Model the fold of this input.
Amino acid sequence: MRCDILIRGGTLVDGSGGEPYAADLAISDGRIAWIGLGYTGQADEEIDASGKVVTPGFVDIHTHYDGQAIWSEELSPSSSHGVTTVVTGNCGVGFAPCRKEDHERLIKVMEGVEDIPGVVMAEGLPWDWETFPEYLDALASRPRDIDLACFLPHSPLRVYAMGERGARREPATPEDMQKMRDLAAEALAAGAIGFATSRLLIHRTKAGELIPSYAAEDAELMAIAGAMQDAGSGVLQMVLDAPFQSWTDEMAHLVRVAESCGRPATFTLGTANDGPPLWEQALDACEAAEAGGVTIAPQVLPRPIGMVMGFELSTHPFCLCPGYEAIADLPLAEQLAHLRDPAFRARLLAEPPHEGHPLSMMTRNWDWIFPLSDPPNYEPPLDSSIGAQARAQGRSPEAVAYDLLLGDAQDGQGKLYNALGNYHEGKLDVLLGLMRRDDVVIGLGDGGAHYAAICDASYPTFLLTYWTRDRQGERLSLAEAVRALSARPAEVVGLRDRGLLAPGYKADVNVIDTASLRLHAPVVRHDLPSGGRRLDQLATGYAATICGGQVIRRHDQPTGARPGAVIRGQQPVPA
Done:
């Protein structure tokens, strides 16, 4: 037997959660053709995996590459971290369906909710589509490195069906609901893997307006979700309003909609840094729903939910101060002329930020803001926080933060990490318990969004390095981590043709030197349309990443191969 690629001598961690084992793996025609020892056939290419592990390609089910997949051939950072499949259209925001007169409206929604600069979208989106099926066709016509699946997003759907009334969040009429259900049926038939919506109060346009889908009535959501029931396929993805008192009401809303359509659902679950464990209410609701026949998967990020802060990024402790706002739009090199000036520093340290802005509390949450090192520490000790350092040094937290951001070289390249959630009592222990639950799925990488504030699409490498190897304390096994990155997320969104190393499955494969695998600190690049900035985070230790039987990355560098496809709908287990 001849194969396209033979991976020889590796240790297979096959995604099932079972024990690793020694085996060779042969790939032919984009599929895994054979697994075993002593392959005697010919291979067009042989990869020596001695001393390395061989895993399925990873599946990231919460991204926002809706725009980047149009203007870029690489879905970076995700593809730099072993990810071979991403799901976009999350949080109910996206770019289809959309009429010409609503282009600017959707740009404003994405600019506010996902922190993608409007000028980047204005230059990067050709809008060679209107309907959702046409958007999928536009994606399919462009080459890219990895596979992409799409949810139908609620906000553009609502505006398309209801026009200005939808944008103003007026209640949908029965006629509106039927129109949205018909459009959802059209989208599912074309290849949408489900329907996504958001109830999150902070999901607003840059001008502060609530997004079109916010507070949509149950009847509207049930009508749209009914298209999934009719089709017998699709997943409901929902972002619930961040509860400060109780998850009970929000979970009841999700359960009602999922129960009405008989389809599985997933939602974003975060844990508070302090206070009582309210998230347990959400878990209890999931268990009760499962007992009633409704499957709901809480989606958890395996590290703190946070923001990277810096003078060349969207947020930092001085970003809302009038003195800094006066120089904020200057290139960093020109900002430095001011930032290095002792008189400017003294004025900025004494100047309070604007009050009432949603970021005003978050940017000065001193006891949860930490220096970001290389390699980054996402479980830093509480005594290393800006607040703790300030108390220990007898200085103001503003002064400590300013000096760290300016950096030892006075180049303004210093970065801070603001752990907003998932860091209960300054530890990640709660996340360990969550990740080991059968109903939980790992997600929330947010690749393609929050370009100048978040870089969590690197979580696969973090999971493999920190949670299985480097953490002081209880860790995950490598088999647990690989399953959490591959078979489990693929199962949740119904992409059952991938996520496992087994004959007949899609040949999405990683060859990883787990002993030397390293996650580097985020860096700023200016490679978006119009020269826009974005955070990128590299890894070293991926000997090869294969998507659809083609090597897309070799020794942490792109090969230029573009096998990535648009996944049309949920996929069955290979026969």
The mean pLDDT is 96.
